[in-house]
Amino acid sequence: MEFVQKSGINIPKLGFGTWMLEGGVCLDATHFALKTGYRHIDTAQIYGNEAEVGQAIAESGVARQDIFLTTKIWRDNVSAKKLEDSLDESLRKLRTDYVDLLLIHWPVDEVPLSDTIPALKSMQEKGKTRLIGVSNFTVSQMAACVDGLGADLATNQVEYHPYLSQEPVLDYARAHDMFLTAYSPLGRMKLADATIREIAQKHGKTESQIILRWHIQQPDVVAIPKSATSAHIESNFALFDFALTDEEMARITALTKQNKRLINPDFAPKWDAAA
Ligand SMILES: NC(=O)c1ccc[n+]([C@@H]2O[C@H](COP(=O)([O-])OP(=O)(O)OC[C@H]3O[C@@H](n4cnc5c(N)ncnc54)[C@H](OP(=O)(O)O)[C@@H]3O)[C@@H](O)[C@H]2O)c1
Questions:
Q1: How far is ligand 1, taken at its centre, from the CA of residue 186, in Å?
Q2: Which atom of ligand 1 is nearest to the CA of 262?
Q3: Ligand 1: distance of its center to the CA of 122 in Å?
């Protein structure tokens, strides 16, 4: 496994995403991911699966401190008044006293960041999370947190795959001691490309492995693919016995100019234009 570091904490560059995993499927998939060797798990209040993730961790035999666990505060709970109670509920479901990373899931226009961010920071001060961060924030929203409100953010979790550039967010993150967490790293398997197919054939790897290797080979980038399928959970983890050449990395990065965004709900912010 390879890691990024923040505040002396090692974060595995490959995590396990759990959106859309529910009930027994989530329990089985998370069990299998831990057995396979994943030590970084991404959940959220809105996924409705924190209890199953918590159960899988508790039953896994893997020590809690050996797992990097992220959850996210849903839009209804980002006010200072609600944030802590909602996190306490998440911690109960996750069967733990702390998460490793607590994210604000989406910016919420109706609640000022000057309300949310101090509440988020206080969760870190109280030891309920080791690191704090945001998700789906634009560069100006990141700056409002970091430069404006003095938040030591670890990450911005955003959609990032070979069909969508995140250059502005990545540049800001790198300049501010943050990493980028790539969600929907496989483009939800809805996008395909001849370049990636060709590189996959050359390496004798699957297209998914090439895409995920592209993510983790970039400095300061972490990827969190989701899968309910054992064979995919295993193959997505088998990324550490080969490397892409600089030329292959550049060819894949060139594809991001297509700017095919998959996650864009009506409450999304006005996204940064690609550089
Ligand atoms: N912060 C946010 O707003 C946000 C938004 C979206 C996602 N996320 C996080 O990011 C995680 C990943 O994103 P995602 O679930 O949207 O998409 P993704 O990981 O890009 O793609 C998941 C899809 O790819 C398939 N898949 C996975 N590995 C495969 C393989 N090796 N070969 C073929 N198909 C494969 C999965 O099917 P199988 O299950 O059958 O393998 C599933 O349909 C989420 O689970 C969640 O934790 C966060």
A1: 6
A2: 16
A3: 31
In a domain, 267, yes or no: no
Q: Is residue 188 part of a domain?
A: yes
Pocket test of ligand 1: the residue of 36, 41, 232, 237 to mutate, having most ligand atoms within 8 Å of its CB, is: 232
Told to judge if 47 belongs to the known catalytic residues of this protein, a careful annotator would answer yes
Residue 102 belongs to domain with CATH number: 3.20.20.100
Atom 13 in ligand 1: residue holding the nearest Cα: 184
Structural domains of the chain, count: 1
Burial of 269 (0-12, 13-18, 19+ CB in 10 A): middle
| d(C-alpha 147, C-alpha 136), whole Å | 18
In a domain, 265, yes or no: no
Q: pLDDT tens string for the chain (275 positions)?
A: 999 999 999 999 999 999 999 999 999 999 999 999 999 999 999 999 999 999 999 999 999 999 999 999 999 999 999 999 999 999 999 999 999 999 999 999 999 999 999 999 999 999 999 999 999 999 999 999 999 999 999 999 999 999 999 999 999 999 999 999 999 999 998 888 999 999 999 999 999 999 999 999 999 999 999 999 999 999 999 999 999 999 999 999 999 999 999 999 999 999 998 75
Question: Backbone phi, then psi, for 129, in 5-degree steps?
Answer: -145, 150
Could you give the CA distance from residue 194 to residue 177 in angstroms, rounded to a whole number? Answer: 35
DSSP structure string for 191-213 = ---HHHHHHHHHHT--HHHHHHH
Q: Evaluate: CB of 107 within 6 angstroms of ligand 1.
A: no
| Residue 102 within any structural domain of the chain | yes
| Domain extent for 165 | 10-258
Q: Is 203 in the pocket of ligand 1 (CB under 6 A)?
A: no
Determine the Cα–Cα distance for residues 50 and 27; give it in Å rounded to an integer.
10
